[in-house]
Amino acid sequence: MVRVGSYQDRAGIQQALDLGADGILIPYINTAAELKEAVSCCLYPMGGTRSVYFPQASTNAAGLLGYVPNSNKNVIIAFQIETHDSIKNIEEIMAVPNVDIAFLGQNDLCMSMGLYEKYVFPQMYTSPELKEATDALKAAAKKNGVILGIFLFGTDRVAEFYEQGFNFISIGNDLHHMLTQAGAHVKVLEEVTAKVGKAWTKQASALV
Questions:
Q1: Backbone angles phi, psi at 171, to 5 degrees
Q2: Are 148 and 138 in contact (CB under 8 A)?
Q3: Which residue, among 156, 140, 155, has the nearest Cα to 104 in the 3D structure?
Q4: Which of 92, 78, 97, 199 is nearest to 149 (CA)?
Q5: Which of 73, 94, 130, 175 has the greatest number of beta carbons closer than 10 A?
Q6: Chain-wide mean pLDDT for the chain?
């Protein structure tokens, strides 16, 4: 799945799909009209306005005719709910046809709702305001048969969100995984060297 620039990124959506992406993640959706524009770019006519050309990397051994007829049925269309306006418009947004996954962006949503100013980190993530917004998303997703997704740093809250119906869970990203593992190695090195009486301490770093 490829995260594109925005709902207006027709070139990025087209390029990602033509290169063989299974799906598209559209960030920062605020209205149903924005989501409809992005969905249109993902689907061939008559379902949308995606252009056709050949050859392209996404086609299989059967060529263009082996790919295009099934693409509209197979492409995964996901979008991010991450602003206060998106929650205000959640009923209309979630009713847009041909979408598969609604991806909750807690960080931007908290920022958009002013929760970073109201709460001390990380209390905004368990605040009643965020819960109310999340509940609205969950209800609209259930009503329209849309899969719920979320991005989490680590696994501490996976069970909590999985029980709530979030079946598409992203556990960190490549940089987060590298930093987490590097930090674990550094901790072991400090413990091992201290045990043998020749303590080693890492240099100050913003990364580890």
A1: -100, 90
A2: yes
A3: 140
A4: 78
A5: 94
A6: 93
Element housing 129 (H / E): helix 128-144
Q: Is 63 left (phi over 0), alpha (psi -120 to 50) or beta?
A: left
**Which of 81, 92, 78, 76 minimizes the C-alpha distance to 135?**
81
Query: Residue 141, SS3?
Result: helix
15 vs 4, 8, 9, 144, 190, CA distance in Å? 10, 13, 10, 29, 47
Placement of tokens 């989501």 in the chain: 35
Picking from 11, 101, 86, 90, the residue whose alpha carbon sits closest to that of residue 51 is 11
pLDDT, tens digit (0-9, with 9 covering 90-100), for 104-152: 999 999 999 999 999 999 999 999 999 999 999 999 999 999 999 999 9
Question: Range with the lowest mean pLDDT among 166-175, 183-192, 197-206?
Answer: 197-206
42 alpha carbon, distance to own chain's centre: 17
Instruction: Quickly state the pLDDT bin for 67 (edges 50, 70, 90).
Output: confident
Lowest mean pLDDT across 4-8, 43-47, 99-103, 204-208 = 204-208
Quick one: tokens of 116? 């970073």
pLDDT the model gives residue 9: 97
Q: Classify residue 204 by burial, with Cβ atoms within 10 Å: 0-12, 13-18, 19+.
A: exposed
Q: Which residues lie closer than 8 Å to 145 by C-beta, 6 or more apart?
A: none
CB distance 99 to 80 below 8 Å: no
